[in-house]
Amino acid sequence: MKRLISLSIIFGIIYAFCFTDNNTGIACPIFGIIFTLSMFYIIKRSEKQITLHSVVYGVCSILLSFIPAVSDNEYIFYGSRLLIIILGIKWALEVYYKPGNVGILRNIYSVIEFGLKMVFEIPSPVKDYAEYKKEHESVYDRKKAGQIIKGILISMPFLIIILWLLSDADVVFGSIISGIFISPHSAVIFIKAIYSFVVGFLIIYCGYKALAQDSVSFNEILIKPSDVITGITFTAIVSAVYLLFCGIQILVLFTSQENLLPEGYTYAQYARTGFFQLLFVCVINLILVIVCILKFEEHKILKGILYLISGCTFIMIASSAYRMIMYVQNYSLSFLRILVLWFLVVLTVVMAFAVLYIHSRKFDFLNNTLIAFTIMFLIFSFMMPDKIICRYNISHFDNQKDLDIHYLMNELSLDATSILLISNEIGDTVNTENMYSYCENVMFQYEVNNKNDIRKFNISRYMAYQAAKKYIYENSV
Are 394 and 423 in contact (CB under 8 A)? Predict the structure, then answer.
C-alpha cells in the first residue's frame, strides 16, 4: 500500500504541475512521455509482458499528447483527450488481462466496465487509509498525532503576527505574502492545484485498485443466432435498393448525364446536395454489416449480400465525397466540411476492415479499427486543418469579395494566423485597421495567457504571435 500511495502522490504532483490552470502547451507532451514511460516501468516491475498492442497504444498516446503543444484548435484538443483515455484503458486491459480477440461486444463492454470500476474506486483511498490506520496505529501514534495537531493550532496566532510584522518591514516580502494569501487569483490557482493533484492521485490509485480486483470479464458475449433466412431476406431487399441508387450515381453523378435530371434541375444543384444524407446512410450500412455478422450464422449467400452492401457503401462514400468537393468548390472550405471529408476517408478504411471481418470472423475488427482511427486522427491533427482551410479559401477565390474574411479571422484557431498574415492575395477584402486590430488581439492574448508560463508554450500560438508582431512592424514603418 505504501508503494501505491507514494506512486500516486508523485503522479498527482506531476499532474498538478502540468495541468493546474493549463489545458494545453508543452506540459501536455511532457506529461504524456512521463506517464507512458512510467507505465512501461510498472509493467516491467510487475513482470507483465509488453505486447505489440501495448507498444502501439503507448506510442499513439505520446503522439496524441503532442497535439495540444502544436495546435490551437480546441476541437482537436478534446478529440485527442478522449482518444488518450480510451487507449489508456485498452492498454491497461491488454497488459493485465491479455484478452486477445474476444469479439466486438466484449471489447466495448470491458472498456466501459473498467471505466466504471475506476469511478467506483474513488472512495477507496479513504477506506484503505482507515483500515491501515486501524491495523497499525498504536496508542503512542495517536498521542503523537494529537501533539502535532496541538502544536499546529498553537503556531497559528504567532504565525499571523510574524507574517504581518515581516510584511510591513519589507515591501518585496509583503507583496509575495499578499499575493499568496490575499490575491483572489492566487487563491483560485491554489484550489485548482489541489483539484489537479487529487485527479492525478486518483487516476493511478483507482486504476491500480480496479486492475487488482481482477474482475473484468473477457468471456465472449454469446448472442443467440437468428434464422439466417430472415437475414438473407431483409439484406437482399436493402441491397436491391442500394443497387438501384448506386446505378444512378454512376450514370448521373460520375458521368454527368444531365438529360436524366428532373426538369429545371441543373447538374450543379444536383451534385451539391445530399452529402450529409449519404454520409448517414454509409454509417448505417457499416452498423448493419457488423450487426448481421454478430447476429446471424455464417452463410455463403448472406456473406455475398454483405459484400454487395459493402461495395455499394464504397460507391456511396465516393458519391458523398464528390458532392462535398463540388460544394466546397462553390462555397469555400470550413472546418465542418474538411472534417466530413476526413471522416469519409476514415469510413472507407473502417468499411474495408468490415469486409475483412465478413471474410473471417477471426479478424480483430475493433482493435484494428481503434489503431487505424488513432493514426488517421493524428494525421488530421498534425496537418493543421485550419491552415489548410485558410490557404484554400484565399487561393481559390478569384473574386475576393466572395471571401469570408470574418470566418478566417474569427472562427478559425490561431493555426491559421501565419497563413492569413503572410498572404498577399486578400487585396482590399480586409482593411489595414481591421488587420491591425486582429494582430493586436493575437499579441495581447499570447502575452496575457502564454508568455510568462513555460508550461503553456504552444508552437502554433507562438508562430501566430511572431507573425502578428512582424505584420505590425512592417506595416507601421
Answer: yes
- Grid cell, residue 66, equals 503532442
Please give the grid coordinates belonging to residue 114: 473498467
Average pLDDT rounded to a whole number, residues 176-200: 69
With both helix axes pointing from N to C terminus, report the angle between 184-212 and 74-97 in degrees, rounded to the nearest 10: 30
Nearest Cα residue to 458 out of 406, 410, 417, 421: 417
Among 21, 4, 134, 85, residue whose Cα is nearest residue 450: 21
Q: Are 310 and 354 in contact (CB under 8 A)?
A: yes
Q: Are 349 and 88 in contact (CB under 8 A)?
A: no
Q: In this structure, what C-alpha cell is assigned to residue 258? A: 444531365
Please, what's the b/e burial string for 337-374 (b: 16 or more CB within 10 A of its CB; e: otherwise)?
bbebbbbbeebbebbebbbebbeeeebbbbbbbbbeeb
**CB 324 within 8 Å of CB 340:** yes
Q: Name the β-bridge partners of 296.
A: 226
Express each pLDDT in 301-355 by its tens digit: 988 999 999 999 999 898 888 888 888 887 788 898 899 999 999 999 999 999 9
CB within 8 A of 455, min separation 6: which ones? 17, 18, 22, 25, 26, 27
Number of other CB atoms surrounding residue 150 within 10 Å: 10
Tell me the C-alpha distance between 345 and 340, whole Å. Answer: 9
Q: Helix H segments across 123-227?
A: 124-136, 139-169, 171-181, 184-212
Residue 315, number of CB atoms within 10 A of its CB = 20
Write down the pTM of the prediction: 0.81
Query: Which amino acid makes up residue 433?
Result: E
Give me Rg for the CA atoms of the chain: 29
Tell me, rounded to whole angstroms, the distance of Cα 136 from its chain centroid.
Answer: 44
Which residues lie closer than 8 Å to 213 by C-beta, 6 or more apart? Answer: 117
